[in-house]
Amino acid sequence: MRDKITxxxxxxxxxEKKIEEDKQGMAYSGEGEGESERLAYIETYGCQMNFSDTxxxxxxxxxxxxxxxxxxxxxxxxxxxxxxxRENAESKVWNRLRSLRQAKKQRPDLLVGVLGxxxxxxxxxxxxxxxxxxxxxxxxxxxxxxRLVSEAGGGQKGVNVLLSRExxxxxxxxxxxxxxxxxxxxxxxRGCDNMCTFCVVPFTRGRERSRxxxxxxxxxxxxxxxxxxxxxxxxxxxxxxxYHDEExxxxxxxxxxxxxxxxxxxxxxxxxxxxxxxxxTEEVLYTMAKYENICKYIHLPVQSGNSRILELMHRGYxxxxxxxxxKKIREIMPDCGISxxxxxxxxxxxxxxxxxxxxxxxxxxxxYSFTFAYSERPNTPAAKRMKDDVSEESKKRRLQAVxxxxxxxxxxxxxREIGKIRKVLIESNSKRSTNDFCGRTDQNKMVVFxxxxxxxxxxxxxVKITESSSATLKGEICV
Length: 479
Ligand code: 5AD
Ligand code: SF4
Known about the structure:
22% strand, seven-stranded mixed beta sheet, binds iron/sulfur cluster
């Protein structure tokens, strides 16, 4: 069977890593397998937002009386939730769709649909040129699935790629299909208005809109009532969250939302992703510092360490401004984990500008970075106005240099943990041994440690860190 998340192995950190490794397909398994007449199989590629969207799609399908299977051969309906962020993410999905052609030939009743960013970007090609799918459904059209599935079942193509300025799926309760019962994603906003010149997201996911804070708090409260211990608030740019409550006249900022979620229960850990350096406010930092249960970890993508390149990328900050932001974070929260995204070989980047990225990395000392060679995306501002003129060879070489430096920093960051006592939320058994638990520290570092009687998934414990490698920490429970 394909790589999939199972109840036991799921954890958001592993997921994050997998996602950024670009990009394993993952199948969602569901409760109630075999109970319903019709079965759906959903495979998800891309970012955490896509995984969260798949839970919305599952909710709509459940209302349509679909059950879920991890066996693609048992499914009446196959959905592939797709990612367009880099060319190789799309290539994987094309290969996957072509591999499904055979299954469709053998089982003419099988319906195959493409969801998400590629549906939005490549509607015509998917339907007409390649004729691989029965449904093409953009990220804002999941409420329309009953009609689209019915049209496709009747032999027509089911198509809806309309982007919305309002859709947040606020009141749709996601079906948590593949969960460890400990951590959940909660989408707080959709779309992005930033228009970073390299990025396809504003075109595939549309304009930014924030979800009603009350529905977010209600969803988090339900999770707590169902035994969950950690929520990750998701958005393309969570720091620009803003919601105006018509009834009370109250405006809620991201800092305000963080506080409301943190106050739900002191044992609920609160995480969030992704932050934009130009938008993260001191109010957010002080709110993080104020509440013990808001995790001290920020993913703050820098993309480049050179101010000219940052301007070409339309990031809205300079190298110095970013470094000041890091200084502020560390002043307010000295122990805060910080990670980044870095792109090498953006249009016209010179060797010395690439060196600036390395020197910024040295100045910051990121605990972790997700690193990418620039991949031109059709119709983005960079594709329209700039030349993709750094050779593939240089992009890859620069990427390798960034990866090597990050590996050193990650290793050092883990070494600094040795001897410390960290509060860990137990998430699952370790992959290697059922005698060990694994869970993460506040700073988002994975720790593996021998089990202790009386403790189980979802419990907190204090772990003394005893060993480290570049990827994981080992430790022993002290309380
Ligand atoms: N090429 C390479 N990397 C990209 N990213 C976004 N668009 C591109 C692109 N065209 C990276 C950015 C972003 C992360 C999610 O993906 O670093 O922060
Ligand atoms: Fe893309 Fe920039 Fe928006 Fe992130 S902030 S989704 S990189 S446009």
